[in-house]
Amino acid sequence: MRTISSFLLIVAMLVSRVAISAGIELESAEQGQKLVESYSDKIDKDRKNAALYVARGQIYFQLRDFDSAVEDYTTAIKLDSKQDQAWFGRGMARALQGNIDEGIADLSVFIERHPDSSHAYTKRGVRYIWKGDRENATKDLLKAVKLDPNNAEAHDDLGVVLAQAGDYNAAIDHFSQTVTIDPSYQKGHHNLAMALYVIERDEQALERVNISLQLDPEARNSWMLKSEILKAMGKTVEAQAAHDEAMFLPEGNWTERAPVK
Predict the structure, then answer these.
(1) Residue 109: burial class (beta carbons within 10 Å; 0-12, 13-18, 19+)
(2) Which of 47, 85, 217, 223 could form a disulfide with 246 if both were Cys (CB 3.0 to 4.6 A apart)?
(3) What is the mean pLDDT of the chain?
(4) For the stretch 210-232, what's the b/e string if a residue is b when 16 or more beta carbons lie within 10 angstroms of its beta carbon?
């Protein structure tokens, strides 16, 4: 087994995929801005309508304008504390602002009202990962997969926690479940490759990182990982080529991302 230090040098531990949806998959920032303007017009005509603030907050979230999203969700909660999606959305956005404890508190309100939400346990578990609270992260993610065994994201994040704890075989099991449930889950393939590399199963690691790169050819961290795998296999020329490819790409960001390109 390779050392955990080399494991951590190759990639940052991965967290989560797209977090929240307003019922609309934004195709562009321009579309998002038009929707913001539309909801703003509606709010001007009906300032006591909490649901409108929630809807606009969700669009702001997808645009990564977390300050505006939090402001709208907070207004919605003040108008109507039963707006559960406002608690959920604010919890998501607050943590992405760096206010992790506040985000966890908001998500906890949502979970109290929706104790069967595998998705909510997953998102709170992710925030515990960010906080470095491995114990509570594990509890939430185990609950998430118990509620929904087909929750690919929860399996992936649980694999992250297990890998951080050094239990790579268990991590591999959960990463494998992730990509079985959702073969398009690029981050799951990357994480699986990463864990396989650590326990020196290089051929399998290379196969998985190649799938990751087929799904996202511009994944810089995956190119870096591929370089390390090839180097370990003695393929120095190919390893250098993969490293050079990575150098032309921007730094990866393994946090939750809104679906606006």
Answers:
(1) middle
(2) 223
(3) 89
(4) ebbbebeeebbbbbbbbbbbbbb
Q: Please state the pTM of the whole predicted model.
A: 0.87
pLDDT at 139 over 70: yes
CA distance 233 to 87: 49
Give the tens place of pLDDT for each residue, 10-68: 444 443 444 444 456 777 889 999 999 999 999 999 999 999 999 999 999 999 999 99
The letter for the amino acid at 229 is: I
